[in-house]
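Thread amino acids onto this structure.
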């Protein structure tokens, strides 16, 4: 349940003694204005050039559907210009529920074939629903 992001220097990287700084912005979809998100450390793991974003980050920032992830690389040995990269991501709105029916309520795992029917589901983003997943506790 993590989104993994990795920064990589590909040209003029010096001795590879680089420091990476990460910033995350929430984007207002109507005005396209960006708001830097300050309180994300409890939802994110940073390991130098890698960033892991837990799904709890998106729940804590539900007022945004779009985000910019910005990474700035600094060469710690040479006086080179900083390198900057940005990644744009957009979360998907969950589908609107329909019904799910199963042909049998009992059976044996890996032996019984269960038939599931899904009807009435729709995607607010306007995409065709091609795949359904069922989870059991």
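Threaded sequence (137 positions):
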């Amino acid at each position: 349940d993590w989104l993994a992001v990795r920064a990589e220097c590909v040209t003029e990287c010096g001795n590879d003694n680089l420091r990476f700084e990460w910033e995350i912005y929430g984007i207002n979809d109507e005005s396209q204005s960006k708001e830097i998100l300050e309180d994300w450390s409890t939802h994110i793991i940073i390991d130098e050039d890698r960033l892991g974003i837990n799904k709890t980050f998106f729940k804590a920032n539900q007022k945004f559907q779009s985000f910019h992830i910005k990474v700035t690389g600094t060469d710690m040995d040479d006086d080179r210009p900083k390198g900057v990269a940005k990644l744009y991501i957009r979360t998907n709105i969950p589908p609107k529920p329909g019904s799910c029916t199963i042909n049998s309520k009992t059976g044996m795992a890996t032996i019984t074939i269960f038939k599931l029917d899904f009807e009435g589901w729709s995607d607010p983003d306007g995409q065709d629903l091609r795949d359904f997943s069922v989870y059991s506790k």
